Input
Amino acid sequence: MREVSEELRFSSLFAMHLAGEPVDAFSGVIGNVEDHGGEPAFCVRLLDERRERIQQRFQSGTNLSGGNFRRRTPRSFFPALLAGPRMIQSLAVFTGSASGKLPVYEQAAEDFARTVADSGRSIVYGGGRVGLMGIIADAARKAGGEVYGVMPQVLVDGELAHPGLTSLEVVADMHARKHRMSELADGFVALPGGAGTLEELFEVWTWQQLGIHAKPVALLDVDGFWQPLLSMLDHMTDQGFLAPQFRDSLVVASEPQALLDALSSWQAPAAKWSAGSKN
Output
């Protein structure tokens, strides 16, 4: 079997697994990647050829292991594989484990959490009790909202977990945390934060661009906090490193209700490398 990148190996095996194919057929499926226009084009073709089978398995209630699962909202599958708009019922929130220097950040976190709770939506976040993370959880719970935390064991051991959540799911590591949050959420919102907030934001936004999910990604621009980043993104677009449709896909709002309204009307861009995308 020819040598392929880890990205292609993962994408191929995952698509085959979703379609119910034996993974020992991997060698035959790979074939000559260059005949299909290189690895990115091959990944798109591989998924497209299996799209109908994957949809059929989901509709029949077959899970990734071949058994049956209780019918629920299709959160554990890539939404990009499913037709139709998504209802925004839960939001993953990325924000700081610090509170920031200005009181406006804490107030904005409280207002946002209360608005989400009042709308009947739930919040998924990293499970922490400190900083803006803790304020988000406290305000949403006080307003009667559901808050679901996902935290690695190492942070639970450090006594950073919030004690008053609807539920706290403990996972093995940071990678598992982000993956689980992406499964539980119908959209993603970043409030002011530091390096961890940026890392979470850019990962889910990149997944959107690649078609791994079709969920909106948004910034709550508190007191102009995100303006320097937005200027950088505009520069990336001007210089040809970020396609305009992906820049436009990022929702930006300064008020919580305006952000929720924008999420509800959001339309996913064509995935990068797909036939309908202008890359």
